[in-house]
Amino acid sequence: MPSGTNGKKSNSAIKITWTDNTVSACKRPAFLPATHTVRRPRMQPNNPDKLTEAEIAAVAKVFFERKGWELFPEVVIPIFGGRPDYIGKKQQLCMAVECKPSLTYPVLEQLIRWHDTVDMANNSEYVDARNYGIPHLLVAVTGRNKQKHADLKQRLLDQYRIGHYEVSYEGIAWHRQHKAADAPFDDYGYGNIDGHRWRVYERSAPKIQPGSRQTADRILALLQQDMKDAVSGVTGMKNNHMTPFRRTMNKATEALEKYGQCHITTIINEINSTMGGHHYCSDAQAKTSIGKFLVEFEIAERDDRTLRFRLKGLSDAEVASRQDTAKIANTGDQHQLF
Question: Is the predicted pLDDT of residue 8 greater than 90, yes or no?
Fold first, then answer.
């Protein structure tokens, strides 16, 4: 991601603009996504007859959000090996969405993999099946295809209860009955986005997945707000999804920004007490790994003798000011903590 306040990066017809609100004085490495706002892409495609994956994903996002779904793009969770374009949440319902230009067998395989993952866990002697789950709904969103599905594709849709929506661009929204720039989607799937007319046609309705009523809540429990920072369908974009490792490093950076300079123990204690913990199996492993990557990613400088880390780019006065503001309770050797 480019540094500064108005970095821009393009992918095909989709234009994404970030607003960087980073307050740290240090240089944030490209590995860590700065706090930003992802604005909605413009909604006029380059080629209306051949929509890209990013364009389909952008329309699907607006469509489902107007139906009351809260969407988490490019989600990485420990109980599923894939990375769905969207995980949707609507009250207690959970939905997995894959967006592609056409309904290919790999798209169906990505959705069917949810069943395979649960079946593997249930049949394994070494995996705790209680940690795995399947969404209530599985949905494929593709470009419009007026031809009939191949028999095998239709059989897979029916057998695995997968929903299929097709997206088509209908032109500028100029008719009187739909002149509003953001008219809601009607019962036939027509709606306006930024003054452009789109249709999201339900070709096959999704049905509740077997076992989802007992297990989908395990997926919802893993969703966090920082997962919304990604942009679905933009496959060439670096750092476009949130992982447990990245989330831990973001927390470590936030803790270090709070104190300016502190011992690695203080960073771990801050992560555990106020940020929900880290993804490592033990605090000892977290200390070793986080300390290593804080230096490797040029977030901090380390005093090898005391294992104190100092946010890169901060002056002595700024460090003293942050430590005074933090007012850390004296829980140990003050020299080591600061």
Answer: no
